[in-house]
Amino acid sequence: MSGKVVRVKSWEEFKRLITEHKPESIAYNVEQGVPARHLTGLRLILPLKGIQYVFIDNAVGNSLRKTGIPLRKDNLGNLYIRDEDVKSFVRSELKMKNLKLHPYWTI
């Protein structure tokens, strides 16, 4: 897919774009920091023909700054975001129970 990438700065604007375009699905990526116990954030991606809208939310304290999605801790003290927390938050905020959310992994 070639095209333009537009960073969306607020959750409200990203939510408006999803509501306007009514996609069947969006992608997300949990971005880990180094070392792993320092979680970096969450990237939500709305891919449309010729353009990708990207919303980035960063961890602060025990949750993500803009969405308030909670951070979890594993037995070693590493912070993580549960996939189900991301999906539940997005679907409830958008009131779109059938919206598919796909994890997006890069290496």
Kindly describe this structure.
This protein has helices at 11-21, 83-94; strands spanning 4-8, 25-32, 39-48, 51-60, 63-64, 72-73, 79-80, 100-103. With 107 residues, it is an alpha/beta fold. 11% of the residues are buried. 21% of the residues lie in helices and 40% in strands. It has one domain. The strands form two sheets. Strands 1, 2, 3, 4, 5 and 8 form a six-stranded mixed β-sheet that branches. It has a two-stranded antiparallel ribbon with strand order 6-7. It is globular, with a radius of gyration of 14 Å. A hairpin with a 2-residue loop joins strand 3 (39-48) and strand 4 (51-60). The mean pLDDT is 89. The protein contains two helices and eight strands.
Key terms for this structure?
2 helices; alpha/beta; 107 residues; globular; single chain; six-stranded mixed beta sheet
Distance between the termini: 18 Å
Overall mean pLDDT score?
Answer: 89
Secondary-structure-based class equals alpha/beta
Gross morphology is globular
Taking pLDDT < 50 over at least 5 consecutive residues as the criterion, the unreliable ranges are: none
Listing every helix as H and every strand as E from the N terminus to the C terminus, the arrangement reads EHEEEEEEHE
Work out the count of structural domains. 1
Approximately what portion of the residues adopt beta-strand conformation? Answer: 35-45%
Biggest pleated-sheet summary: 6 strands, mixed
Radius of gyration: 14 Å
Kindly state the percentage of residues in helix: 10-25%
Helices, by number, come to 2
What is the element layout, followed by pairings?
Elements: E1 4-8, H1 11-21, E2 25-32, E3 39-48, E4 51-60, E5 63-64, E6 72-73, E7 79-80, H2 83-94, E8 100-103
Parallel strand pairs: 1-4, 2-8
Antiparallel strand pairs: 2-3, 3-4, 4-5, 6-7
